[in-house]
Design goal:
346 residues; mainly alpha; two-stranded antiparallel ribbon; 15 helices
C-alpha cells in the first residue's frame, strides 16, 4: 500500500523520524523495565516469592532494589580473560537492539484517513533486515563466553550456536511465507495488508512455527540451554557481574519486547482498526497504536507465562525439534502460503 504524504510535510519527515527514533528508544527502554517487573511479579505470584510480592506497591520498588544491587556490586574480571572481548560484548548486544528499532514500526497514526506508520524509516526489505540484525546479538554472547576464559561459558556459547543455526531456518521460512502471501517484504505493508484477515487465521501453522522459533531465538524457556544453571552454573554469563550482567539481561528483555512486536505485526493484524476509527481525528491518532500495544503486551505475557509452565528441553531434543519437526512444517506452510497468495491475487 502506498502512503500519500502531503507536500508540505515532506521537508519535515527527516526531523519527525529523528524525533520518533529518540522517543522509541526511550519507550522501549521503559518497556524493558516494565517487562522485568512483569516477569518478576508473575514469578513471585506463582512461586510465592517474598521480594516482588512485598517490596512496595505491587512490588514496584523491587526494581529499585535490583538497580542498587547491580550498581554497587564490584566489577570483577576473570584472570587471563580477553579484555577486548569481555569488556565490549554489551556493545554488540545493545547495538543489535538499536539496529532493529530503526526499521520496526511501533504503531501508526491516521490523519484525515491517511496512514502514517510510527517507524524511524521504511525499507522495502525491512522484515529481512530486522531478522538479520537481530542475529547480531549472538556475537555479543560469544564475545562474553570466549573472553571469560571459562569452560562453562564456552559450552553455553556453543549451545547457543547450535540452537540459533537450527531455528533461524524455520523462522526465516515462515517470514518468507508471510511476505509471499502479502507480496511485500516491507513489514509496514504486511501489517497494513492484514485488515480483518489476520495472518494467524490464514497461516495458523506458520504462526505456530514462527512463535516456537522465536522463543528459541530469544533463548527463553524451554530453550535456555545456553545458561542452564543446573548444568552450566550460568552458562555464557557465568563470569559477568554487576552492571555488565544487568546490561546483558536488559538487552535480552528488549529483544523479547521486539519479538512480541514482530508476532503482533506479522500475524495478529498489527495496528489495523475499523475504518470509522481511522477516519476520526481523535481516535485515529490514539487507537491504532494502543491496539498494537495491547497485542504486544498479550504476547509478552504468554512468553513470560510459558517460562513457569514448561520444563527445559535437553540440547539434543532442541536440535531434533528444529531440524526434524519445525523445518518440514515451515516448508509445508510455505507451499500453503504461496498457493493461498496466488488464489488471493497477491
Amino acid at each position: 500500500m502506498t502512503v500519500v504524504i502531503p507536500e508540505y510535510i515532506t521537508p519535515l519527515i527527516p526531523w519527525v523520524r529523528g524525533i520518533v527514533g529518540l522517543v522509541l528508544i526511550g519507550v522501549i527502554f521503559m518497556g524493558a523495565m516494565g517487562a522485568v517487573w512483569l516477569e518478576r511479579k508473575l514469578s513471585a505470584d506463582i512461586q510465592t516469592r517474598m521480594g516482588p510480592c512485598r517490596v512496595g506497591k505491587y512490588g514496584l520498588l523491587q526494581l529499585v532494589a535490583d538497580a542498587i544491587k547491580l550498581f554497587t556490586k564490584e566489577d570483577l574480571k576473570p584472570l587471563n580473560a580477553d579484555s577486548l572481548l569481555f569488556n565490549n560484548a554489551n556493545i554488540f548486544m545493545l547495538g543489535s537492539v538499536f539496529l532493529m528499532l530503526v526499521a520496526l514500526p511501533v504503531g501508526a497514526v491516521f490523519i484525515n484517513g491517511v496512514e502514517y506508520p510510527l517507524a524511524v524509516t521504511q525499507m522495502d526489505i525491512s522484515v529481512l533486515y530486522i531478522e538479520a540484525v537481530s542475529a547480531l546479538s549472538i556475537f555479543g554472547i560469544f564475545m562474553v563466553a570466549y573472553g571469560s576464559n571459562n569452560k562453562y561459558s564456552l559450552l553455553g556459547a556453543f549451545r547457543n550456536f547450535a540452537r540459533m543455526v537450527g531455528y533461524e531456518v524455520p523462522l526465516g521460512i515462515t517470514v518468507i511465507s508471510v511476505a509471499a502471501m502479502t507480496g511485500s517484504l516491507n513489514i509496514v505493508d504486511i501489517s497494513t495488508a492484514q485488515g480483518l484477515h489476520w495472518n494467524i487465521f490464514l497461516q495458523p501453522l506458520g504462526c505456530f512455527v514462527f512463535f516456537v522459533s522465536l522463543m528459541a531465538d530469544m533463548g527463553r524457556l524451554p530453550f535456555d540451554q545456553n545458561e542452564s544453571e543446573e548444568e552450566l552454573i550460568a552458562g555464557w554469563i557465568t563470569e559477568y557481574c554487576g552492571m555488565r550482567f544487568g546490561l546483558g539481561f536488559f538487552a535480552e528483555y528488549i529483544h523479547m519486547i521486539l519479538g512480541s512486536f514482530l508476532v503482533a505485526l506479522l500475524f495478529l493484524g498489527g495496528w489495523n482498526v475499523p475504518g470509522f476509527i481511522a477516519n476520526n481525528s481523535f481516535f485515529g491518532i490514539i487507537v491504532p497504536t494502543g491496539f498494537l500495544i495491547v497485542k504486544v503486551v498479550f504476547v509478552l505475557m504468554v512468553i513470560i507465562g510459558l517460562r513457569w509452565a514448561v520444563p527445559r528441553f535437553r540440547i539434543d531434543q532442541v536440535v531434533d525439534l528444529s531440524w526434524k519437526k519445525l523445518l518440514p512444517l515451515a516448508l509445508l506452510n510455505l507451499v500453503w502460503a504461496v498457493g493461498l497468495g496466488l488464489y488471493l491475487g497477491a
